């Protein structure tokens, strides 16, 4: 009997499938920036597994090609540098002309820099702010114009523990992510009446190739992060991917303006 119900569900229209399984992203189109590696790759994978068609972007075409080959036919790529703000309207226009209306935007692409605050130059500070804040807003605006007009859409920001408490040597990164948290609240207050939800996911300490390299070069920082994480382990990229699927799905349809820590308790640890 369960097998029959499963077969039946595949023949139902997307809206009915989502009523049966509110966590489904069947029939949705998602854009994930920085989707070729790390957390972005796992968000793309989890969303594709949940039924979405996913477009990933990044600067390195070879990396994106490898990701698409790994993730399957429902994932596509476009090379793009989000820092080129004047190109972002055209990017969204091209995606919608090629694949259809965007339902989900995941602002995952970003950069970090670990350096004592007194040594950070204006140029370095501005580079982080431009990538993590200015570009995020510009792409969000390009997508939101269309989502608001259609009265439907989900926008997800990737925040950080650096926006929750003071972490040394990441002043520019923390400033950018704190600003993103503020932007989530304002955009949610403006867009929610148009059925466009805006939320953030704040990863704790997640194991990626990049983070392992950084942590192994700074054992004291690694040990401090572990000590204040009550679950006693670092997260995996798919933990963020699963959270993104939930926040983008109808299961979270009454959640907007929120920041969800996915951190093993790090943000409340002592």
TrEMBL record:
Enzyme class: oxidoreductase
Catalytic activity, EC: 1.1.1.47
SUPFAM superfamilies registered for this protein in UniProt: NAD(P)-binding Rossmann-fold domains
Keyword Lipoprotein: no
Superkingdom classification of source: Bacteria
Alphabetical UniProt keywords: Oxidoreductase
InterPro entries: KR_dom (IPR057326), NAD(P)-bd_dom_sf (IPR036291), Sc_DH/Rdtase_CS (IPR020904), SDR_fam (IPR002347)
Molecular-function annotations in GO: glucose 1-dehydrogenase [NAD(P)+] activity
SMART domains hit by this protein: PKS_KR
Pfam families xrefs: adh_short_C2 (PF13561)
Residue span(s) of domain Ketoreductase: 28-204
NCBIfam families linked: PRK07231.1 (NF005559), PRK12826.1-2 (NF009466)
PANTHER family xref list: 3-OXOACYL-[ACYL-CARRIER-PROTEIN] REDUCTASE FABG (PTHR42760:SF115), SHORT-CHAIN DEHYDROGENASES/REDUCTASES FAMILY MEMBER (PTHR42760)
Family membership: Belongs to the short-chain dehydrogenases/reductases (SDR) family.
Protein's name according to its UniProt entry: Glucose 1-dehydrogenase
